[in-house]
Structure formats: C-alpha cells, structure tokens
Amino acid sequence: MGFDTIIANGRVVTATDTYTGDIAITHGKIDAVGKSLPSENAGKIIDAGGRYVFPGGIDVHTHLDMPFGGTTSADDFETGTRAAAFGGTTCLIDFAIQYKGQTLRTAFDTWMQKASARAVSDYSFHCIITDLADAQLEEMNALVREGVTSFKLFMAYPGVFMLDDGSIFKAFQATAKNGGLVCMHAENGNAIDVIVQQALAAGKKSPKYHALTRPTTAEAEATSRAIALAEMAGAPVYIVHLSCNDALEKVREARDRGLPVYAETCPQYLYLSLDNFDVPGFEGAKYVFTPPLREKWHQEKLWQGLTRDHLQVVSTDHCPFCYKEQKEMGIGDFTKIPNGGPGVEHRMSLIYSGGVAGGRFSVNRFVELVSTTPAKLFGLYPRKGTIAVGSDADLVIFDPNRKHTISAKSHHMRVDYSMFEGIEVTGMPDVVLSHGRVIVEAEKFLGRPGAGEFLKRSTYTQP
Ligand SMILES: [Zn+2]
User: Fold this and answer.
1) Cis amide leading into 382 (omega within 30)
2) Of 7, 115, 127, 145, which is most buried, counting CB atoms within 10 Å of its CB?
3) Distance 52 CA to ligand 1 centre (A)
4) Which residues share a beta bridge with 72?
5) What value does the mean pLDDT of the chain take?
C-alpha cells in the first residue's frame, strides 16, 4: 500500500521550521514528512520543487451571505470559499448572527444552513451576540461544549449590534469560566453616532465622511475599555480588525503587562488609506467599511505591529458588496452605504508580498500570522495551522516569485470591483489542497460545493 499523494521536494514552511522535503498524504491527512519518501505506489506525485509548501491559510474573519442594511453580502459560502481557495486560504471562520430576541442556537442553525451544502473547504463560526440575557449566558456554555468556542461582541452600532458594558462584562465572566474567547469590535459607538448625526446635519454626506466621522480615538478608547473589562473578569480578549496606531498602543501596553490580549489587522489597513477617497463621484463607497481607512502613516505602524508580535493575526473582514446597486444604496447619504469590502482572495499574497518579499518579516512569521496563530487561538491546532503528521492535508504550494496584478477582471470573488485594483503582488499560490484533494491548480477550480466540513473547535489556547 502506498500513499495517496506525495508532494515532493518543496520548501516546507511552518511557523518555526523551513526545510526541503516530501509530504505524504493518506485519507486526507498528512501521513509522513521526510526525505525521499517511497513514491513507487503513490497514487499521485506533485512536484513542488523550487516552491514553498505552506499549511493552508485560515481566515478567521469573513461575512458570507450576511444580511446588512437591507441587502446581503455578495459572496455566499460557495463563491466565498472558492475565492478563498484561489488565494491559498482553505479554512474560514465566519460569523453566525443572533438577532435581538433570538436564541444563540437559532443563529448557529441559520448559518449552518447557509454553509453546509455550499462550502468547498472547511468552515466554522463565531457566534455574534446582540442580546445577552441569562438564557443566552447559559447557551454560551452549551455552544462552547459543542465546538463553537468564540463569540463576537460589538461596542459600536448602538440599537443594532451594540451591547452595554455590563453585558460585555458578563460575557467575559462566562468565557473566563467556559474557556471561550470573546472577539471584540472595539469602537465607541455612542460617540460616533453623535458625530455622524452632526455631519449629516451639516450636509456632509459623501462616502469619505464615513471615515471622517469615526476617529481613531473612538477605536482606541473602546479597545482600552474592552481590555479593562476582560482583565476584571479574568478572561482573554481578541480585538478584531484593528486599524490604527492609537488602538495598537493599547494592545501593546496590555501585552507588555502580560495580559492575554490579542489583535488582528486586515490587508486593507496595511495597503489603503484615506487617500483612497480621492476618487471621482461616489466611488469612495468602494472603501466604506468599519473601522474606516486611516491616514497613511498608520500603515507602517501596523506592519511593525505584525513584525514585533503586538498584532498576532491577519484576517480580511471579507464582506463584499457590489458597487452597482449595493454600494449605490448610499448615494446622497453615507450612512446608507453597506459597510464592507472584498478581500478573502488576496490576503495570503498581499501579506507575503508586503511582509516577506518586502523584507519586513520571515516566511515563518508569515505562516504564523495567516495560519498557525489563528488555528491556536480558535481551537483548531494542530489539526490545522501546521504541517505535521496527523494534521489535515490542507496545503498550499506557493510560488514566491510569481507576480500578479490584482484586478476585478481576474478575481474570483462575486463582486464587481477590487479594493486592491492595480496592486502588484509577489508570491502566488500554484496548487491548493483541502483534505488532500487538489481544489485549485493552474488557475482552475477542481473542488466541489459541499465538500467543506464544519469544524468543531476546542477552546482557546495561548499561542
Ligand atoms: Zn467583520
């Protein structure tokens, strides 16, 4: 009996090691890693010579098939996971939203229904809690036992998603006991709403005012408050989509004090800035998401944060809305623009290009940021996030020299523009495997909707 597949002669990269070797796969799992593995009886041999082999990317922040402001995000679980696969991301953690008055169970069931027949690669959910009474506190424990081990809370969007500090504190107390991890959208929503109303009253209604009405101080204040509430409850906290240096400083200070505080940033905050609003007409709406784009100088601070481990993860907050008809709902009133941008496909290449090819950090740090730490924080390690015997054979053969110019003309996301239009990246995935099956090769999709599995996750471990 031979192996099902051997990936031969690649430069194998994990968060800690880089070496040339073969990876053998049997029944969807990594069966052996070594030099010159016996290939006579192997079902298939893929030559990875001259290229890297990475563990599949894990994007822990996407919003597929999500209702928002009277419309729905443009990618569903089929198109979204397929686009992710083209970019080397083989596992998504999306968000199941509990609306007011609902049980958490209803949220979970609703999103399972959206995903289970469509996802081409593995997926899981954080549960967004917008209404937290005693019953839901109990349900948090039940969900953790069933493998939904992280929750997202909002300090922004009063009246829609926002929880008060007392409820947030109770949620932290619950996760301190049940081992769950709270993901926090940290912006001071009440103050922002006042600024927004004042801007509208003054006739400031174009897309860039979405950004100008959400100051960095509002993000820093909420980040600091989230950390304080978590500290009082004795719980870890994960700050989502951190966008600016002011908030980064709060995370850095807390980590220097030894607190279990973690944060992600996203490619848009590393590559785009307020300057992107200098476009004709209403086109700035393409860059309306929350937190908003910041002044350009924040970008290098965020890259440094990734290098120095003040930031631990890069996710995308992929939440695509087409410019035509969806973004256009906000012509004449920026508050009606659906918030979100498309990004799931290009995370790996953008971060490799700017991080590794750009000389900012090592290829091992790259793997840690886009795969290993996400797996550890969200209870998927070592099944995902590394290349080791027994791990799922979610693998990416990556050409570090191939150049690609990002464009809506060639991308696979179901959206009519790209936030990164015209940006040239160095480093592209050539072959992508999920559970040992090739799902992308030579720019062709070879996977199948419904092949992705729901992942029951363990509780958070300190990375
Ligand atoms: Zn989000």
Assistant:
1) yes
2) 7
3) 30
4) 67
5) 97
Distances (CA, A) of 390 to 25, 28, 31: 9, 9, 6
Report how far ligand 1's centroid is from the alpha carbon of 63 (Å): 7
Continuous segment of H or E residues that includes residue 346: none
Residue 445's nearest CA partner among 407, 411, 418 is 411
The answer to whether residues 175 and 235 touch, using CB atoms and an 8 Å cutoff, is yes
pLDDT digits (tens, 9 = 90+) for 34-54: 999 998 989 999 999 999 999
Q: How far is the CA of 61 from the centre of ligand 1 (A)?
A: 6
> How many angstroms separate the alpha carbon of residue 219 from the centre of ligand 1?
14
DSSP helix/strand/coil, 65: coil
**CA neighbor of 452 nearest in space, from 124, 122, 81:** 122
Q: Are 126 and 457 in contact (CB under 8 A)?
A: no
Per-residue pLDDT reduced to its tens digit, 377-397: 999 999 999 999 999 999 999
In sequence order, the β-bridge partners of residue 7 are 23, 46
How many angstroms separate the CA atoms of 62 and 79, rounded? 13
Which residues have CB less than 5 Å away from ligand 1 (the ion)? 317
pLDDT at 1 over 70: no
Q: Separation of 70 CA from ligand 1 center, angstroms?
A: 17
Question: How far away, in angstroms, is 128 Cα from ligand 1 center?
Answer: 10
Residue with tokens 């290939």: 39
Amino acid at 349: S
Distance CA 85, CA 79 (A): 10
Please check whether residue 431 is in contact with residue 46, taking contact to mean a CB–CB distance below 8 angstroms.
yes
DSSP string, 273-330: -GGGG-SSTTGGGGG--SS----THHHHHHHHHHHTTSS-EE---B----TTTTGGGG
Task: Kindly report the pTM of this predicted structure.
Answer: 0.98
Ligand 1 mean position, distance from CA 317 (Å): 5
156-176 residue pLDDT tens: 999 999 999 999 999 999 999
Q: Tokens 């801007």 — which residue?
A: 199
